[in-house]
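Board notes, transcribed. Complex of a protein with manganese (II) ion.
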Amino acid sequence: MKVDLQVNPIETWAKTTHKPLIIAGPCSAETPEQLLATAKQLKELGKVDVLRAGIWKPRTRPNAFEGAGEDGLKWFADVKKELGMMIGTEVANPEHIELALKYGVDVLWIGARTTVSPFAIQEMADALQGVDIPVLIKNPTHPELGLWIGAFERFHRAGIKNLAAIHRGFSTIDKSKFRNVPTWSIPIELKRIAPQIPIICDPSHIGGKRDLIFDISQKAMDLGFDGLMIETHIDPDKAWSDADQQVTPSRLGEILRDLKIREVTSDNQSFNDSLEDLRTKIDSLDRELIEVLTARMAIVEKIGEYKKDNNVTTLQVNRWDEIMKNLTSLAQKMNLSETYVEDLFKIIHEESIRKQTEIMKAVESKA
Ligand code: PEP
Ligand code: MN
């Protein structure tokens, strides 16, 4: 599947001359002083393209700080006038959009909790019909690529061509060092099927802790992401929301200084030649893998026939457990990650079971 949307590159709307695009600013606009002081230091870094601040905050439970609302927009507009920076905020309904436009917000983004709702997205797309403003769409809280793409399609149909994705990770019930697990395969798949949509990484909401921000940002740069959105606060520990994950403007400066920015291609001929050579080897190994999987499946089918004839279940838990134990210990010896080998063989085993179930069914329908 390919997604056929006409989306403009970031440079169309952000006057950025450098890569990646940097969006920074506090999780929430708290007071006029906090917003201005943070913004001034960010401006001094000379690398921040868009100043972010949450005006309406989607909090998990009521009674937490829910944002400064229209007052915050007034402070934001003043900061924009004083410092000449582009400003951006999260909107979640047509009323937010109307107010954001009234106060001169330059960039809108859709929060993760809103992307999950096609009704909310459609209402906002309708409100933006005929308005020329960039809309950045955060991934939905759960890893469903279709829902993310659907949001792009709705805004695109309303005429918005300045679109970008924000990868902010996904909720999980599993124990994890991340606040929201990155599951990089989802944004990578988005990049594959819709390479025209720029992707910005939000390491703050992925990490949930400021110590994780550099590594997540570097990983995004290694993958060729187009931008970063990093929560930055003049006094992070005193922040009214997301205190653990915000960094000071000077820490942001260090992060941006130390990040290695990679290019998608290189004009170094000898690098390109070696790459080509290694890729030929990979292609040939991949072909061998397919041949081995085909030979394996032929035996799986034969076993399926025997099981059918002898009225034995497709799933043999002890055997499966033994295979997994042997393979993960082999993986360890060979220096391959155990979870990698485990995940791979779960897929292989699942397909074997599916094939054998098909064989069993064929018997039942014959009988
Ligand atoms: C935010 O950017 O402050 C925010 C609420 O993010 P998310 O929608 O990713 O949770
Ligand atoms: Mn936040």
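The longest strand covers residues 21-25. The beta strands are 21-25, 50-52, 86-90, 107-110, 135-138, 163-167, 199-201, 227-231.
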